[in-house]
Amino acid sequence: MASGRTNPAWKHCVYVDGKTRNLICKYCEKVLIRGVYKLKHHLAGTSKDVGAYMSVLKEVKKSMLDIVVTLQQNLLRKSMSREEKIALFFYNNVIPFNVANSEEFKRMLELVGRHGPRLKPPSYHELRVKYLKQRNEKTNLIMEEHKLFWKKTGYQGEIQLKKIFKMMDDIVEEVGEENIIQVVIDNAANYRAVGELLIQKRKNFEKKISLHHNTIANCKKITTYIYSRTGLISLLHKYSQGKYLIRPTNTRFATSYLTLGFLNENKLSLIRTFTSSKWQSSQFVKTRDGRLVENLILDKGFSKNILNCLRGVLPLIKVLRMVDSNEKPVMGFIN
After folding, report:
1. Residues in Cβ contact with 126 at an 8 Å cutoff, skipping those fewer than 6 apart
2. What is the pTM of this model?
């Protein structure tokens, strides 16, 4: 064996005569082509490009596995930084950027970092059932403390709900139910309850709410599908001249409707993308999700729904941007 070799793997092999890149495992005498690379995987038991040696000593296997894992981590760091991976998770799942300011998000990353590699994330079922149930039980315990307080002071929630509902209903009467395109209210629980009461009293509101909800949900399907596939992003940019379909803002409300606007602006680019020969010959068109997204983009009714949503909401977004701006006083614009 040549001198000057510092890699720990070299002590577990010998050279094949006349073949400087071929090695023989000291333990099983297996001939390994391509030198020390395959030896590491052979002794680590990964079965990558080479059969695993099942009778290897535990300390040897652990040593080789640590080397293999370290090399893979270094390769990942070179190809994409940790920060880029986190950013990609936000982009592909259309997560609002303000989530990055959440203390829970920061604490989650700290805990993951402390655990180290090979952390098994919670499954879909665990998130939906196990941990949700645990959180619900903890919330109920907190509520019990409030209920004891309500017995002494009285519960004002129902009275407040009735007052808010009456105020909203009076506005509907004043404006005229037939003239209302959409009712936009705060996302707090009491206002959501008021929305349910309005729907119970005025059945036409449910159709208007469903139109916006379903249209936004379908737009999310389109953007999520496209931006989770690099090949589709490149194909879309070819027809859209590099324009994006998503522009996250500080609020989910604004992000959703601005995305509707970008989909409407890039309608022709999307149609050209999903009717192109490259799309029709791709592997995506054969999948259920691919066909669903294609049908949505080519559906004239869906395009009409986007326009109807935008007509009612864009003026409101313009006003909200004025109110939320810190650059100049806004009272002169709103009267």
Report:
1. none
2. 0.41
